[in-house]
Design a protein that fits this description.
This protein has 258 residues and is mainly α. It is built from eleven helices and no strands.
Length: 258
């Protein structure tokens, strides 16, 4: 009897009854911040970003068309470059030399503002062409052999792996389309800047480009709904979340490899 009781309560004895394990909960396709629902600033930050972009582009466009506003146009055009310098300053270990370089650039801009104001259009052009070229390179590099197209990465972050072969092929074509779009933006921007007045170029850069980007998003969404009618389709904000998830994962991989 004693042996029977010891054998019955032996914790190492396998049980014939199934274990009552908790059911795993599927993780979302892209990570959700725990404070996303409690922080209004994070929840509506994209609205402030869009409004800030619209206000800045409107100020650029007005300064480019208003006679006598060349100095203001110069400072508006240089503001993003100074902001980039300030961000780089915060991340560099050589704080004193970096501070001196940034302060020297600001001082030179102020001292020579009058002669530089006559060429303020170059600051606008470098902004527009530089951003579009950088985006085109980012999309284009992801099309290299052995790389995953950027739109495929975003779709995987939104819908979860694996994508169907037809969906994967579609995302590759969309990545190619965005690459060609940004290359065309750089080409048209360069031609207009060289051949047309600054005001005409400004109309294309500050008004036409956002409308063309919106048309690209709308056209792609329409094509996706036609090609995949049974798919759960996402909106622009979901695409932004997916892009941020891809960039965060990429930054995490580069940080862990150091």
């Amino acid at each position: 009897m004693k042996r029977l009781m010891q054998h019955t309560i032996n914790p190492q004895m396998p049980s014939s009854q199934p274990l009552d394990l908790p059911t795993p909960i599927a993780a979302p396709a892209y990570p959700v911040r725990p404070d996303a629902a409690t922080s209004p600033l994070r929840r509506h930050g994209w609205i402030a970003a869009v409004l800030g972009f619209v206000v800045y582009e409107s100020a650029l466009h007005r300064a480019a068309h208003q006679p006598g506003a060349e100095v203001a146009a110069l400072f508006l055009g240089m503001a993003p470059f100074l902001a980039i310098g300030f961000v780089a300053l915060r991340r560099t270990g050589w704080r004193a030399p970096a501070w001196l370089a940034l302060l020297a650039a600001c001082a030179a801009l102020w001292i020579w503002r009058a002669p530089l104001a006559g060429h303020f259009g170059w600051t606008y052009f470098l902004q527009h062409a530089g951003v579009n070229a950088a985006l085109g390179v980012m999309f284009g590099r992801s099309l290299r052999a052995g790389s995953t197209p950027l739109c495929m990465q975003i779709a995987t972050a939104l819908h979860g792996p694996p994508l169907s072969p037809s969906h994967a092929q579609y995302t590759r074509r969309v990545t190619q389309a965005w690459t060609l779009f940004f290359a065309a933006m750089v080409g048209v921007s360069t031609l207009l800047f060289v051949l047309a007045p600054v005001a005409t170029w400004s109309s294309f850069a500050n008004l036409g480009t956002p409308l063309l980007i919106a048309a690209m998003f709308a056209g792609e969404a329409a094509c996706r709904r036609i090609a995949f009618p049974g798919m759960r389709h996402t909106g622009l904000l979901d695409a932004v979340h997916g892009y941020r998830a891809v960039m965060a994962a990429r930054a995490g991989r580069s940080g862990s490899s150091r």
